[in-house]
Design a protein that fits this description.
Elements lengths: L16 H20 L4 H5 L10 H20 L17 H4 L6 H19 L7 E4 L2 E4 H27 L5
Antiparallel strand pairs: 1-2
Length: 170
C-alpha cells in the first residue's frame, strides 16, 4: 500500500480562537500524512534511527491513540473507547508492534479517528473541563497539548522520512 499525496491548508492568520486551534490541528494531521505519502509498507515500518523503535507507521498509530485518549475518552467522556494498539501489558505496542501491522487499516483507522474526534468535540467549548488523573484541564489545554504533540512528532517524522528516501519539506 502507498499513502497518496495529501492536501494541506495553511491555518488562517486571523480568526477566532477555536477556528485557529482546529486549523492548526488539522494542519499537523495533514503534515503527518504528507510525511508518509509515497512510501510503501516496508518503508513506513522502517525504524530509521536505531535503537529507537520510532517508525512513521508507529507515529500514525501513536497519534491515533493520543487523539482517541484526549478527545474521545477525555473531552467527549466516552469510556467505551479502548486503546487499539497498546495495553497495560504492552504500553509501547503502538510503536513496537508495526512489523506485521496492516498498513491500510492503520491509516483508515487514523482518518476515521480524526473524523470521530471532529464530530465528538464540535459542541465542546474551549473552557469546558475534563478530568486528567487527579487534576482537571480545559478543552483549550487539550487542543494546545495535541498541537504540541503533533509538532514534536512531525519533527521526528521529518528525520525518519529524510533517512528513508532523502525527502525533505514534505
Amino acid at each position: 500500500m502507498t499513502v497518496s499525496q495529501v492536501e494541506r491548508s495553511e491555518p488562517r492568520k486571523v480568526s477566532d480562537e477555536r477556528t485557529m486551534l482546529d486549523g492548526w490541528l488539522d494542519y499537523h494531521r495533514a503534515t503527518l500524512l504528507r510525511k508518509c505519502a509515497g512510501l510503501n509498507d516496508d518503508q513506513l515500518r522502517r525504524r530509521s534511527c536505531p535503537p529507537s523503535t520510532l517508525s512513521l507507521l508507529g507515529l500514525v498509530r501513536h497519534l491515533t491513540e493520543v487523539e482517541r485518549g484526549w478527545f474521545l475518552r477525555g473531552v467527549a467522556d466516552r469510556r467505551d473507547v479502548p486503546p487499539i494498539y497498546y495495553s497495560d501489558d504492552n504500553p509501547d505496542g503502538d510503536f513496537d508492534d508495526v512489523d506485521t501491522a496492516d498498513v491500510g487499516e492503520t491509516f483508515a483507522t487514523y482518518r476515521r479517528t480524526c473524523d470521530q474526534v471532529r464530530a465528538a468535540v464540535a459542541e465542546a467549548t474551549l473552557d469546558d473541563m475534563l478530568r486528567d488523573g487527579d487534576s482537571r484541564c480545559s478543552v483549550r489545554w487539550v487542543y494546545l497539548h495535541l498541537i504540541e504533540e503533533y509538532a514534536r512528532h512531525n519533527g521526528h517524522a521529518d528525520l525518519l522520512r529524510e533517512r528513508i528516501d532523502g525527502a525533505t519539506g514534505c
